[in-house]
Amino acid sequence: MREYKRLWWALLGVVAVTFSLLGYYGTEIYREAPPIPAAFVSESGKVLTTEEQILDGQTAWQSVGGMQLGSVWGHGAYQAPDWTADWLHRELVSWLNLAAEDQFGTAYDELNEQQQHMLRYDLKKDYRTNTYITKTNTVSLSPRRMQAIAQTSDYYNALFGGAAELQQTRANYAMKEVTLPSAERRARLNEFFFWTAWAASTERLDGNATYTNNWPHEPLIDNKPTTENIVWSLVSIVLLVAGIGALVWAWAFLRRQDDEEPIVPKTDPILSFNLTPSQKSLGKYLFLIVALFTFQIFVGAFTAHYTVEGQGFYGVQTSEWFPYSLVRTWHIQSALFWIATGFLAAGLFLAPIINGGEDPKFQKLGVDVLFWALVLVVVGSFIGQYLAIAQIMPPELNFWLGHQGYEYIDLGRLWQIGKFVGILLWLVLMMRCITPTLNKEGDKNLLVLFMLSVIAIGLFYGAGFFYGERTHISVMEYWRWWIVHLWVEGFFEVFATTALAFIFFNMGLVSKRMATVASLASASLFMLGGVPGTFHHLYFSGTTTPVMAVGATFSALEVVPLIVLGHEAWEHYKLKTRAPWMENVKWPIMYFVAVAFWNMLGAGVLGFMINPPIALYYIQGLNTTATHAHAALFGVYGFLALGFTLLILRYIRPHLKFDEGLMKTSFWWMNIGLALMLFTSLLPVGIIQFIASASEGLWYARSEALMQSDTLVTLRWVRTIGDVVFMVGALAVTWQVVKGVFSSPEKAVKTP
């Protein structure tokens, strides 16, 4: 018990320190966010735009898909440009051409090197000098810059308004024709994009870096990595090496070896419990999981095809009904829905086991209500997103019923509230089974940790309500990553670790002490890097150097526990041979093995590839990020949710025998397909973009010229091979689950 106390105090200390850092520097984001002035004005006093108009532009951006159509400050989709980098470069080029005509009577490209250098000096001075006046809350702009802004705005108005001369550009960007019909809202959209570019090119009043820490890379105005960026990148690498060394040392010399492996029962202990009504009703959850999974992979293939045929699908013009921004939204949202449903189902299956094999009163009713609430949220949010991007929904309803515009949290606020209510209902259903057990005799440490992870999952999704439709985008990004990073990568990780420990302990495969110690230690390691590591998403989102320092330092430690996952994978793999009855759960365990492998490779190696500030400076918003996202989201959480699905299916259909052919196909084809997708397409495209970003600037890495080059188009076509291989495996596991769910609980599903 003394060992448990030390681990609990360590966990509590880690949580206290890390959340203090997250909260303190979160308040700094509020204090130091780039100002949205009351007005941008010319030197003669003419108003270009106001705070109200910029925020109106933010809402217009949300309504066309927001981060699902290109990106802003590097966060969003990868096909269309990063609008911040693109607007900034176009405005700079316009300024240089105007200056060249004024001073030399010719285009900038026609000037000699000395003349170009002189104009670039003036350009840098005009753009990087902060003319924000705190007293009047206004920004003054030079006449030439006003002209450059007007020219850039004309281009964007034509692009989003459906001008015929830019039809091919829209196709290359996977934009539908007349993306935003209202001329007034297009003007506001342009003003929002201008403001994001202003913040990315204007130095803070008290420093020599822009509000976005000199991001994006733009040689024309000397936007390059700051000294702090380089310093904290090196610190993060040193800490990673030191952390790995410390973990290996502890693993080799401090780990206790005195636990004897428990004697494995002759029969599966979980089968000793009679299935409760609430557990029997989980079949529909499993069907929903694979239905959404199947929808996700098909709409994902559709989305990927838009990167080579931007407005159609093999010659059929589909973008007017199902544009890229919509299908990408559905692809991501359906993934989050089915993965979350898999985790919720795992909790609901374990709850009666924790309660001694009994349902509390009305538990089945609660499980059924929760299921239909999930269905309502899925269907309602998908319909709302369609109506929003089609510009059918009234603008004032978009944020609430349509599309919030923020990647991973795209569903309208009403549907977000519905999802939160559903999670709270799940929390109540879980706690009704957990709390009575706390009063019983015996070691409760593992149960308490499991309970705390359940509470955290239930409550922390509420962080998504701390921003609104017109909240400053820097503040919104802070809270958005509380959901995308902290809620998912932090608390779900602890829940998954503890749930697996519970399952293996109840199977008699590991001792309770070993399961408890491993879960407590893992929770401390996940929280240590994961909580302040949230800031590594915010290096260039209008934050200051301390945020970069904390994010770089702690996010390096996120990778440390992942290096031992190869050993964890081996330990999981060996479990399937511990007893003859383990053959019945071999395939769920194999999926858990895949989780450990992709956690190491996808979350660890590919995650750290984009983690240090100097790396992210050049590759934020490129396909290198998509490489990590696919490997981590599906490789870790997808395989884990499917593993839970297969495990639950095995127990609610006690006589079920998995079809070996289907399961081998599902496991190997999905793993191989995912690897092909990453390493023959996404990563090579990302590396080529990285070289372009480092040499020419981010604008070029996301430009038509590069993205539609023969090499990159070929690489995106090559992805089709990996996609098809993956889809075969996905359909195999879907068919296995469907056969199992709709089979008779009393009859075996025979292996052919």
Characterization of this structure:
The protein is mainly α and 752 residues long. It is 66% helix and 4% strand. It is built from 26 helices and ten strands. The strands form four sheets. Strands 2-1-6-5 form a four-stranded mixed β-sheet. A two-stranded antiparallel ribbon has the order 3-4. Helix 14 packs antiparallel against helix 15 and helix 19 packs antiparallel against helix 20. It is globular. The two termini are 50 Å apart. 54% of the residues are buried. The C terminus is likely disordered.
Summarize the structure.
The protein is mainly α and 752 residues long. The protein contains 26 helices and 10 strands.
